[in-house]
Amino acid sequence: MRKYILDFFCPSAKLGIELDGKIHDKQAAYDTFRSEGLSQFGIHILRFPNERVLSSVETVVSEISQVLNSLMRVTPPPQAGEAGRGT
Predict the structure, then answer these.
(1) Closest CA to 45 of 14, 20, 77, 75
(2) 3-class SS at 43?
């Protein structure tokens, strides 16, 4: 199994956020491979170019919030005391 380090990760939503600098212009195939590998674990990846974050942080935060809300509706975390309970 490969190990990856994400820029940001929310385990309860299985959401990874990657901020891409200029190096990513030269490694698009690797980034796609990496995202596909992480998706096998149910991890959804959002990618943002550094320039977009710096120039439009409110829009980036809004997009992250929308995706996060959508993912949390699909797979809500267990409530305290519910882990391991049968239905």
Answers:
(1) 14
(2) coil
